[in-house]
Amino acid sequence: MTARNAIRDTFFEECEELLEALVEGLAQMAVGAGDGETLNAVFRAVHSVKGGAGAFALEALVGFAHRFETVLDGIRAGRIALTPEVMHTLLRSADHLAEQVEAARDDRAIAPEVTAGFLANLYAILGEDAPEEPDGAGDDPCFGFAAVALDLGPLGAGAGLGADGAGFGVGSSVGPGAEVIGFPGPGPREAAPGWRVRFRPLPALYAHGHDPAALFAALADLGPVTVTLDLSDLPPWEGFDPAGAWLAWTIRLAGAVPEAAVREVFDFVQGLCLLDIAPDDPPAGPPAEPAAAPPLAPPPRREARAPEDDPAAGPKPTLRVDLDRVDRLINAVGELIINQAMIEQSVLDLTLSSEAEVIGHVEGYRLLARDLQEAVMAIRAQPVKPLFQRMSRILREAAEATGKQARLVTLGEATEVDKTVIERLADPLTHMIRNAVDHGLEPPAARLAAGKPAEGTLRLSAAHRSGSVILSLRDDGAGLDRARIRAKALARGLISPEADLTEAEIDNLLFLPGFSTAEKVSNLSGRGVGLDVVKNAVTALGGRVAIASVPGEGTEFTISLPLTLAVMDGMVISVAGRTMVIPVASVIETLRPDPADLHGLGPQDRVLSIRGRFLPVIDVAQGLGLPARRNAAQDGAEGPPLLLLVETESQSHCALVVDEVHDQRQVVIKGLEANYGAIPGVAAATVLGDGRIALILDAEALTAQRPPADPAARPPFPNAGVSHASP
Amino acid sequence: MQALDPARQDAEFVTFFAGGQSFSLDITHVREIRRWTAVTPLPHAPQEVLGVMNLRGSVIPIYDLAARFGLGPTPENPRNVVVVAMIGPQTVGLLVEAVSEILSVDRAQVQDTPDIRADSTRQSITGVIPLQDGMTRVIDLAAVIQPRGRQAA
Asked: Where does the record place the region Disordered (chain A) (predicted)?
C-alpha cells in the first residue's frame, strides 16, 4: 500500500467519524436540543470533510461541502432561519455528503444531476448569497447555477402590459436565490432619489386574479425600476404547492415620485400582500432581505463556543487499530482459554489433595484468562449508533421515494454489539426499514383518516437482554393484513387451503422465501426477495427474528442476536456416545418425561404430551445420521429418553432426544465452513477442555429437517416412513 | 522440513504411503506433519472424511487418503501420521501410513497420468513420478478434498 493510499484510508476513516458527528448534531438541532456549540460541531464536521476532500482533489465533494458549509455559516450568523424546511434540507444534504464520501471511497461516481438537485436546495436556502461566491461555483462543472436574468423586455416598454401581460417565468431550475429582472424604464437610470418597495404577495393576491407583473409595469410608468426577485422561500420541488405564494420582490424605483403615487399602484392589492415602501438608499445599497420574518430564527449564539477539548463533552481518547490485529488477539485468547481448560483437566486428573498449591494457581489462571477474554471481546464491541444513523438516512430516502412521511426514533444507541454483527446487520435492517415504510406505514391521507398523525413513526431500539442483543423495529402503521397474507401464501402454494393457521403462523409466512405482499413491484421493496433475506441474514448471525402485529396499531419486528460471534453459552450433551454442544439460548427446559406422555404417531414418529400440547420428538442421533444408541422399541426397557425442549423459528417447540446432559459452559465458536463446509444440523464446532472438538448443534436445522418443514403445511397424518422398520 | 530450492528448476515433493501405495504432494502445499490424534467424526460425511481435529485452535478435517483412493480404510496404527496441507484458504489433514522422503525432481520427470479405467483416481492425480523401486502418484489436493466426494456418501 502506498503512503498516499494509507493517508487516503485515514481520510475516509476520519470522514466516517465526522459524518457521524454531523448527523448527530443535526439530529439534535432537528429536535431543538442543539445549542451554539452543536451548530459549531456540525460546521466543523462539514468543514473538515471539505478540507480532507480538497487534499484528494475530490472536486464534486469539495464543491458540495463548500455550499453546505456556507448555509451552516449563514445559520450560525443568524442570516438564515432554521425553519423545518431548512432543517430537512440540512439532513438530506448530510445524507448526500455521506453518499458522496462513500462514492469517493469506492471510486464510484455520483450522477452530477443528483448532486445538482441537492445543491439547488442549498442555493434556495442561501437566497441572495449564492451569486456572491463565484469562487466555489466557478470552478466546478456541477455548479451550473449562476443567476439567470429573465428578459422581460416587452414589459418595460409598457405597451403590452395590459391584461395579456406575460406571466412570470421562474426559469427552469430553482437554483439561484435571486434573479435580477431588469425593467428599462423611460427615464435615465441614474436618477438618484427614489423608492424601495418590498412586495410579497399572499396567496390571496393570486386567488383574486392579480398579477404582480401588472403592478411592476405600473411602477415602471412612474420611473425606471429595477425588480429583484427573491426565491429564498421557494420550497423544494417535491411537495411543492403550486397554489402557494412563494415569491417576493424588491422594486427600486428611481426618480422623484411622490410616495402617494407609489402607494396608489398597490391600492387594489391592499391586504393581499406584505408591502414596505421606503425611501431608497443610494443605488449600491444592500440587497433586499427576505420579506418574510424568519419564523424560527435562533438567536445568534456565537459567544457560546466551548473549548474543544472540554473533558466533560469531548470524546474519550481512542486508538485506531487494524481489525486483523484485534482478531489475532481474540484468536490467541480463545486458544488460551482452551489451553487453560486443558491444564485444569490435567491437574484434576492428577487427583491431588485439595490443598495442593497448583489447584489454587490453576483457579487463578482460569479467572485471569476469563478477564482477559472479556477485555479482548470488548475491543470488538461497538455501539450501534452509526448503524442507527445510517438507518435514519435510509428512512428519509424511503419516505421520499414512497411519498410518505416518516420519522425514525432510535433508542439504546449506546448498546454495544460485536463489530461483525453490526456490519452484517446493515443489510437486513435497511430492508426492514424500507419494508416498514413501503408496506407498514399507510399513506398520509389514510393515516389522517384513521385518526393518526400524517407522519408515521418508526421506533428502532437496541438493548441487551440476558446475554443477547435485542433489536426491534416498530412502526405505527396499519399492521399486517393477515387475510391478504394468507391469500397470497395460498396463491403461491405455500400453504394448503384447509390449513388452520394461528395469527403467529400467518405472520411467519412473511419469512418464507419468495413471499412478497407488494401488489406491484416498487423500486423500494417488493422485488420478490422479501423478509426471508432478513431472516437468513439474522440466522446466519446465530440470531432469530420474530414478528408481532396489531391491526391498526402497527407491526414490530424483533431480532435477537448473540452478543458476540466468538463465544457462546453452550450446554454440553452427549448424543450417540459423542460429546456435543447445543446453544443454551435455544433450550427451554430439560426433562425426562413419564413414558405415558410419549405417544407414537405413525411408524417412527413420536410426540410428547406436555402441558396440554403435543410436541414432535426428534432424535438428534437420527437427525445427524448417527447410529442411535436406543430406539423407540427399547425405551420400555431403558426408561424414557432425556429430552431437551427447544424453541426454533420454524417449529415453535420441539423435543430433542439426547443421551445425557453434562455441563453448561462458555464455548469458543470455531467455524467449520472455512476448512470443510456446511453440515446440516451442525452450526459450528468448539474445542473442549481435553483439546478434542465437539460439534455445536443447530437446533433450527435439526428440527427443520423433518419434512415438511413448514408447520402450516403439515398434513393431518405424517407420511408413512419406509426407510426404517417399525417396531 | 527442507527449505524451498531457490533455483526452482526442480520441484520438491513429499512422498508418503497410503493403502500400500506411494503418493506425493507438492511441498508448497505441505505445512506440517503431525502425529495422529483422535478426531471428532462429522455427521453426513463421506467415508474418507474421518472427522475434524484441533490444530492449534483451527478445526481441520482429516481425510483418509487410502479410503479416498478406494484402497480401503487405513487401519489404526500408532505410527500413522497426518500430513497437514494448505490449499488456498483451506487447511486440511491427510491421514497416511508413513511419510517416506522429500523428493527433489525435475518437473519434466513428472509424467502424465496413464489412461487408467478408474476415473475418480485419474481425476485426483496430476501425474506420476518414476522411482527406483516403482513410482509415486502426485495427488491433486483440490480434487481430493472437493465437496463432490462428500455428496457421494
From this structure: 280-318, 706-727
C-alpha cell at A144: 451550473
Check if the beta carbon of residue A598 is closer than 8 Å to that of residue A682. no
* A646 vs B6 pLDDT, higher one: A646
Question: Structural domain tally of chain B?
Answer: 1
Cβ of A693 within 8 Å of Cβ of B92? The answer is no
A466 lies within 8 A of chain B by CB:
no
On whether the CB atoms of residues A712 and A653 are closer than 8 A, the answer is no
Q: Indicate whether B131 belongs to any domain.
A: yes
Residue A285: Cβ within 10 Å count: 10
Distance CA A657, CA A629 (A): 11
A581 beta partners:
A572, A696
What are A363-395's pLDDT values in tens digits? 889 889 888 887 887 787 888 888 898 888 888
Q: Residue A436 — pLDDT band, cuts 50, 70, 90?
A: confident
User: Do A464 and A547 lie in a common domain?
Assistant: yes
Domain holding A36: CATH number? 1.20.120.160
Q: Which of A563, A285, A537 is nearest to A419 (CA)?
A: A563
From CA A559, how far away is CA A269, in angstroms rounded? 61
pLDDT in tens, A547-562: 888 888 889 999 888 7
Structural domain includes residue A399: yes
Of the pLDDT bands very low, low, confident and very high (cuts 50, 70, 90), residue A527 is: very low
Q: Is A338 on the interface with B (CB under 8 A)?
A: yes
Residue A84 CB burial class (10 angstroms; 0-12, 13-18, ≥19):
exposed
CATH number at residue B65: 2.40.50.180
A-interface mutation test, from B39, B47, B59, most A Cβ less than 10 A away: B59
| Residue A294 covered by a domain | no
Contacts of B88 in chain A (CB under 8 A): none
Side-chain half-sphere exposure of A196, counting CA atoms within 13 A = 16
**Do A528 and A418 belong together in one domain?**
yes
The set of residues, in sequence order, having a beta carbon less than 8 Å from that of A255 and lying 6+ positions away, is A187, A191, A193, A194, A222, A223, A224
Pair (A461, A524) in one structural domain:
yes
Specify whether the CB–CB gap between A719 and A606 falls below 8 A.
no
Calculate ∠ Cα A553-A554-A559, nearest 5°: 140
- Determine contact, residues A27/A390, Cβ cutoff 8 Å: no
Q: Could you tell me if A428 and A510 lie in one domain?
A: yes
Q: CA nearest B50 in A: which residue?
A: A676
A474, B95, B102 from B81: Cα distances, Å: 58, 6, 15
For residue A73, the enclosing domain spans: 3-138
How far is it, in rounded angstroms, from Cα A543 to Cα A529? 20
Q: Does A701 touch chain B (CB under 8 A)?
A: no
Q: Could you tell me how many residues make up chain A? A: 727
Same domain, A448 and A483: yes
User: For residue A336, is pLDDT > 60?
Assistant: yes
Count of structural domains within chain A: 5
ipTM tops 0.85: no
Tell which wins on pLDDT, A314 or A661.
A661
In a domain, B142, yes or no: yes
| Cβ-defined contact of B43 to A681 (cutoff 8 Å) | yes
The residue-averaged pLDDT of B126-131 equals: 90
Residue showing cell 423611460: A186
Beta bridge partners of B34: B82
